[in-house]
C-alpha cells in the first residue's frame, strides 16, 4: 500500500490564523509528523530567508517551496524556476502607471524570482496595466500581490521538491486555504482544503475539513498519523476546476 511520506503545507491561513499568528498546535502537529518519518515541506509566497527560518525553528526537514513555487531549496541545493527579470519589469510598469499607489514589500531585495507589493487598487486595473508585459502573471494571496514569471506555481514547486527529497508526488498530501494553492493540491496524491479555504480550492480538493486554520491542520496531521489517509492517495491530476 502507498503511504504518506511527505506533507506540503501552505503557511499563511493554514498554519497561521487570519492575522498571521502562528498556531502553536499546528507547530506541535508538524513535529509529530516529522518524528513519525513524514517529511514536512512548507510552501509559501514569502521569500526564502523567511520560510527557511520558519522551517528551521519549527523543525521541518523537507524541502522549502517559496515565492509561490518559484524557488525550491533543500539541503543546500537551490532551484530557481522562473526569471526575476520578468517580475522586476512588471513591477516597474505598475509603479510607473500608478505612482505612489504601489507599495513594495520589504522582502523584495531578498526575493530570487517574484516581486511582492500591496495596493489599494483593484485587481482589474493592475492586470490592465500589465498588458504588454510578456511572460508575467499577477497573483493575489489574500495578504499581498505578487508579479511572477507565468510558468511559476506551487504545483511545479511541489514536483521539483518531491524529486529532491526522493518521494513521488502521489505520496504527498498537500493542504492549503486559497486559490494560489490549487496547483499544489492537484499535483499531490491527496489535496486537502481547510474549512476557511476559498470555494475554488474546495472544488479542487479531495478532502475538505470542517475546521479552520491551525485547528484544521492539526486534525489532518492526526488523520495522517493514524494511517487512515493512505488508501485515499491517488495519482496527481493537473486539471483545475
What characteristics describe this protein?
241 residues; alpha/beta; Rossmann fold; Hypothetical Protein Ta0175, Chain: A, domain 2; 8 helices; globular
How many domains make up the 3D coordinates? 2
> β content, as a range?
15-25%
CATH class of the largest domain: Alpha Beta
* Sheet with most strands: strand arrangement: 2-1-10-11-12
Strand segment count: 12
> CA-to-CA gap between the ends?
29 Å
**Which value, in Å, is the CA radius of gyration?**
17 Å
Could you characterize what this model shows?
With 241 residues, this protein is α/β, with parallel strands linked by helices. The chain folds into two domains: 6-80 and 152-233, Rossmann fold (3-Layer(aba) Sandwich), CATH 3.40.50.1000; 84-149, Hypothetical Protein Ta0175, Chain: A, domain 2 (Alpha-Beta Complex), CATH 3.90.1070.10. The protein contains eight helices and twelve strands. The strands form three sheets. Strands 2-1-10-11-12 form a five-stranded parallel β-sheet. Helix 1 (24-35) runs parallel beside helix 8 (213-226). It is globular. The two termini are 29 Å apart. The mean pLDDT is 95.
List the helices and strands and how they pair.
Layout: E1 6-10, H1 24-35, E2 39-43, H2 48-58, E3 64-66, E4 71-74, E5 77-80, H3 84-97, E6 103-104, E7 115-118, H4 123-129, E8 136-140, E9 145-149, H5 154-165, E10 172-176, H6 182-186, E11 190-193, H7 199-204, E12 207-208, H8 213-226
Parallel strand pairs: 1-2, 1-10, 10-11, 11-12
Antiparallel strand pairs: 3-4, 4-5, 6-7, 7-9, 8-9
Helix pairs in contact: 1-8
In short:
The chain is α/β, with parallel strands linked by helices and 241 residues long. 34% of the residues lie in helices and 20% in strands. Helix 1 runs parallel beside helix 8.
